[in-house]
Amino acid sequence: MKLPHTLVLGAILFGLFLAAALVSFLWTPFDVETLDIAAKLRPPGALHWFGTDHFGRDIFSMIMVGARTSIAVAVVAVGIGVALGVPLGLAAAARHGGVLDEVIMRGNDLVFAFPSLVIAILITAVFGPSALNAIIAIGIFNVPVFARIARSGALSLWTLDYVLAAQVAGKGKIRISFEHILPNIANLLIVQGTIQFSLGILAEAALSYVGLGAQPPTPSWGRMLADSQTMISFAPHLALFPGFAIVLTVLGLNLMGDGLRDILDPRIRRRVRSRPERSPE
Predict the structure, then answer these.
(1) Structural domains in the chain (count)
(2) CATH of the domain at 123
(3) Would you say the C-alpha torsion 177, 178, 180, 186 has a positive or negative sign?
(4) 3-state secondary structure the chain
(5) Where does the pLDDT of residue 277 fall: very low under 50, low under 70, confident under 90, or very high at 90 and above?
(6) What is the domain range of residue 166?
(7) Cβ atoms < 10 Å from Cβ of 204
(8) CB atoms < 10 A from the CB of 21, how many?
(9) 68-88: buried (b, 16+ CB within 10 Å) or exposed (e) per residue?
(10) Rounded to two decimals, what is the model's pTM?
(11) For residue 275, is it within any domain?
């Protein structure tokens, strides 16, 4: 099967930053915690490929470590959303129209009423700003997203013959949800996971930008943008490179999501197969 171009391009873009994040555990061109005031605000060159910041730190090295921070926060936050949201969505679908369904969905509506930034402000007001609190805030916001996706996908399957046959065979609703329903909505969850992953990176950058994410000396793309805003007129490289890192990573994940949807969605596959081929003139 030929892979969609969007999937390949997205995987390449995201793979570059994932590789940079993994390599940063073992090596970076310069130590991101070492200050070199004599080398501050140097433009991109042979020694410092992306230049240096106002403390003389190498921006390329900070981009590498910042990728590690952003990806780690997004992965854990999406993991929280999947681990809590999917079981809730399956339970709501299994008890469709009942009290449990109503409680779960109204709880989702309540969480949706508070954006992740507001939730982060509430959490950090109590526990203080940190990457962990950013993960919790983004993860809480992901829970109702996956709950709704799981519920809507499961509801469309509960009336199918093979699910009814499983009920006749004496299987309980919990067992049916995990043995028969979940595998058949995995494609929806995978595609939504890539979307929430990209949104998680954006949310982490936004929280770090306002000082609620990862704290110094840990590099973060959002805080690098915040630090650069007063110097952008004479040192634009301070904002350009972390900005491009955010844009390209999110773009790669969105392209991956589009490509996975083309592969996993049977309706799209059928349309592609039924499309008539043009005969050469």
Answers:
(1) 1
(2) 1.10.3720.10
(3) positive
(4) CCCCHHHHHHHHHHHHHHHHHHHHCCCCCCCCCCCCHHHCCCCCCCCCCCCECCCCCEHHHHHHHHHHHHHHHHHHHHHHHHHHHHHHHHHHHHCCCCHHHHHHHHHHHHHHCCCHHHHHHHHHHHHCCCHHHHHHHHHHHHHHHHHHHHHHHHHCCCCCHHHHHHHHCCCCHHHHHHHHHHHHHHHHHHHHHHHHHHHHHHHHHHHHHCCCCCCCCCCCHHHHHHHHCCCCCCCCHHHHHHHHHHHHHHHHHHHHHHHHHHHHCHHHHHHHHHCCCCCCC
(5) very low
(6) 5-28+50-269
(7) 32
(8) 20
(9) bbbbebbebbbebbbebbbbb
(10) 0.87
(11) no
Q: Determine the length of the chain.
A: 281
Contact 127, 133 (CB under 8 A): yes
Residue 39 lies in a domain: no
Domain assignment of residue 274, yes or no: no
Judge contact between 42 and 48, C-beta under 8 A.
Answer: yes
Q: Is residue 248 part of a domain?
A: yes
pLDDT of 98-137, one tens digit each?
Answer: 899 999 999 998 888 887 778 777 887 788 888 888 888 8
